User: Fold this.
Amino acid sequence: MRYHYEKPQICVPMYGKVYICDHPVYSRCTLFRLGGKGLAVIQQRFSPDSKSTSWSSIDPWLANDIYLHPGFKRYFDKRAGICTDGLYPTVTVRQIMWALKMKPLKKERWETVFDRKDI
Assistant:
């Protein structure tokens, strides 16, 4: 049994879209929209050249699995909101995976976390 989430062999991203915005933490995210509400999901990236991290949209192969999860709609209804000043409520990919009880991504040494619910 695998403990960590693994990338599938074949991936055709169908859900979520890359959303470009002017957020203080990130400039790109994966946006899930249902009706007039939306939820932005971000994932941390590491640049080996500059040895720095940044937040960006999630891997396309993760978007389908998150959206199609049976608990996604309930989580979305609880955390999503309307667009305010071009920004939607935001969660990290780890926050949503833990909330949906999905197997987590392997944690890297360079990863950081937000200590609050809202980003």
Observations:
- Strands lie at 17-20, 28-34, 37-47, 52-57, 90-92.
- The chain has a mean pLDDT of 88.
- The CA atoms of residues 26 and 96 lie 17 Å apart.
- The chain is about 20% helix and 25% strand.
